[in-house]
Amino acid sequence: MTVPAHLRALLALGLPLVGSNLAQMGLHVTDTIMLGWYGVPELAAVVLGAGYFFILFILGSGFSYAVMGRVAASLGAGDEVQARRDTRMGLWLSILFALGVMPLMWASGPILRALGQEPAIAALAQDYLRIAMLGMVPALIIAVLKALLSAQERTQIVMWVTLAGVGLNIGLNWLLIFGNFGAPEMGVRGAAVASVVVQLVTCAALMVYAGHARGLRQMDLFARVWRPDWPAFRAVARMGLPIGLTSVSEAGMFQASALMMGWIGTVELAAHGIALELASLTFMVHMGISNAATVRVGRALGARDLVRLRDGAWIAQLLSLGFGLATVGLFLGAAGPMIGLFLDRTDPAAPEILAFGTKLLAVAALFQLFDSTQVMALGLLRGVHDTRVPMWVAAGSYWLIGIPASWILAFPLGFGGVGLWFGLVIGLACVALSMIARFWRGPWLRPAV
């Protein structure tokens, strides 16, 4: 394949995934914006509650990423039977995981208080999570089905279904958070109910498509889905658990930063949540390109096409880096207007949140470059089924370097929330440089002897 052909193939697969990721993120952004209009304590609570949910979700979603890589390789080798087996066991593992973590969400209030959060904010976050936990099973099923459809290069349906979910979420939030048109005013509980409904509807839509769409019907995905396939179960678990732990290492670093920001103050925590939402939106673009790279590299691996694997990898890396550079300019040039979208300007705390959030986005501009590199490197490594070493590198970089650096800069050295974010940059840089070097030096880029 020529360079333009690689680029077209990557964009054809990746752009709908970017759209889907942005739409998925839009669910959380709309919750943040609308609860920011409702009140600062509610905004701070949903920052904690959604972060808590996300930590558990991202750990369980490792099985879906394993499905994506394994199914792409199986389809590249022409083995649709193995693709079906892996997908079914990915569904099994995801459902079992979701059921297992529900007690952690039910008892989230005491856990958050033990982590130093204000009792009133912890109680609101628990109210949110005791409803939101009902959406964990459908959310993880959605992740596996998205992985299957992405590996099948059917990404547009994923994007359109997710976009429809954003519209439904906005409408339900308007009704249930604020109590419009005679609906009960539920605040954070209303946001949680809206999220669960959206997850159930999205899950049902993707299940119908995966089971009955032309070209997928013969796969017979859900026939006898209750029957165990232990070899596939173990294979997906062995690959998926390290991916989940790698992802949760990064997500855990950001959640730990939210906890530490909560020690500084409610205004700082609210600003942190807004800045992190904006940074996460741009991260979704990198994630979409990374997922497309996983599929492209996985298919090349299955077909044993070394040239296509190598060329596709460096084009994906350059594409993600280019977007990262564009984002740096956006964060430096338009921080105030973007943060203002999340605030009720009549709120007395709004000017403080705006000023502090602008400083955080300036630091976020710096870590865009490292974030784009690390997520692309991990996507490429998943495509070649390399997950164990990345898990240990990520855990060490984030938890032994990034989090301690954040704490030292924020508290002993007195740089506060801005220093805390510089610690995040240090952790991301360690992972980015280590993982991209690992991919380009790996045995998968050398001809088999």
UniProtKB/TrEMBL annotation:
Compartmental location: Cell inner membrane
GO function term, MF aspect, one: xenobiotic transmembrane transporter activity
Sorted UniProt keywords: Antiport, Cell membrane, Ion transport, Membrane, Transmembrane, Transmembrane helix, Transport
GO BP annotations, alphabetical order: monoatomic ion transport
The organism's place on the tree of life at top rank: Bacteria
One Pfam family of this chain: MatE
Entry-linked InterPro entries: MATE_fam, MATE_MdtK, MdtK-like
GO CC list: plasma membrane
Membrane topology according to the record: Multi-pass membrane protein
Transmembrane segments: 47-68, 89-108, 128-145, 157-178, 190-210, 318-343, 391-413, 419-440
Main location: membrane
NCBIfam families given in the database record: matE (TIGR00797)
PANTHER family, per database record: FMN_FAD EXPORTER YEEO-RELATED, MULTIDRUG RESISTANCE PROTEIN NORM-RELATED
Name used for this protein in its record: Multidrug-efflux transporter
Species of provenance: Rhodobacter xanthinilyticus
Organism lineage string: Bacteria, Pseudomonadati, Pseudomonadota, Alphaproteobacteria, Rhodobacterales
